[in-house]
Write a structure and sequence with these properties.
Strand content: under 5%
Oligomer: single chain
Radius of gyration: 25 Å
Helix content: 55-70%
Number of helices: 3
C-alpha cells in the first residue's frame, strides 16, 4: 500500500471520530488514525531508503539450504595424509 492510501485511511478515521459521540469509539478511531499516519511515514521513508528487505527462506527451502551448507563445510584432515 502507498503512503497516499495510508493517509486517506487516517483522514477517514479522523472524520468518523469527529462525528462519533461515543468517547470510547472516538479514542479508538483516533488511535487508528495515528497508526495509519505512522504507516504513511514509514512508507515514505522506505521509498527514499536504499535498504532492501529479503524474506527469510520458506520452510521448503530450509532443508535444501542446510544440505548445501553441510556440503560446503570442509572435512577435517586425517593425520598421516
Amino acid at each position: 500500500m502507498s503512503a497516499v492510501q495510508y493517509r486517506r485511511y487516517a483522514a477517514e478515521c479522523f472524520q468518523i471520530a469527529e462525528a462519533t459521540s461515543n468517547l470510547q469509539y472516538r479514542a479508538t478511531l483516533m488511535h487508528m488514525a495515528r497508526s495509519w499516519l505512522q504507516l504513511a511515514e514509514r512508507a515514505e521513508k522506505n521509498i527514499t531508503s536504499d535498504l532492501g528487505y529479503e524474506a527469510p527462506p520458506s520452510a521448503r527451502e530450509r532443508p535444501v539450504m542446510q544440505q548445501q551448507q553441510q556440503q560446503q563445510q570442509t572435512q577435517p584432515e586425517k593425520k598421516g595424509e
